[in-house]
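Retro notes
What went well: the complex prediction finally ran end to end.
Inputs used:
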Amino acid sequence: MSDFAVTTETQTKELFIKMVVAAWDASTGQVNKLFDELSDEQLAAECSPGRNTGIYLLGHLAAVTDRMIPLLGFGERLYPQLDQPFLASPDKSGLEMPPVTELKKYWKEVNAKLSAGIAATTPDEWFAKHTAVSAEDFAKEPHRNKLNVLLGRTNHQTSHYGQLLYLKPKS
Amino acid sequence: MSDFAVTTETQTKELFIKMVVAAWDASTGQVNKLFDELSDEQLAAECSPGRNTGIYLLGHLAAVTDRMIPLLGFGERLYPQLDQPFLASPDKSGLEMPPVTELKKYWKEVNAKLSAGIAATTPDEWFAKHTAVSAEDFAKEPHRNKLNVLLGRTNHQTSHYGQLLYLKPKS
């Protein structure tokens, strides 16, 4: 038995994809569990005094995941109306926000659509360019592929997960 | 020009390594910049009332990075004494902590040693097992390689980065 796994290129790709998708799924699962656990009152609170509320971060993460759908070529996004209050504007902008129950529904729907797209993506497609990079730039920067989008968004989501944890009662 | 990058297996590996190392470096760079910016007083504050202080998270992240050195086969770790106060114990355990200036020095040193190890690792070595998995388990679960350690630790570090951001003055 060797310390090195002997692989073909396709197996190597499949292995990377598994690693990155597993990290995304683990992060989304954590966030989802937390959103399910937190009451509407807890979600309305600020993660730290004067900082983002749980509701804002819920809308923000739903918007970011929704935007990944067209970026990865998985079809049309579901809720473009989330961008104005949750991406283009900071929390407490005074803009109208959907009720928490609606936001939780959006969050689950955008994740379900994204997960379906992920499941249907072939190994070669993951290493193809995402839709926001030109063919010319991609030829020079082949790391700007679809898998790298998932990697970057995992880190973004995880940074907010750390903040959302502060909404839980102290143990 | 194609949407697909044509690659050999080695190029595929190199590409993926570049993606994962870049994500780690970006995360470490962000955290490092923040630790440099925050005053000792700011680092002594809690990220949110009743939660971890910046100093605890500095020691915690230094300990986690230090442990990555032997885990990835880069040699002996530098500061095993960090584990008791910053990993095995929660914040405000009453255990003695090194002064902030020392902790900042440890943080930079463990990262320098880790980065040197990363730079010296060949593509095949990244896909070899890390030192905490048996050869037998690795044969069944080849995703438990060194690169996956870096991927997981990036997410861990990023979740604490989100929390540490609350130590900055509100903009």
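What we learned: The mean pLDDT of chain A is 94.
What to try next: split runs per interface for comparison.
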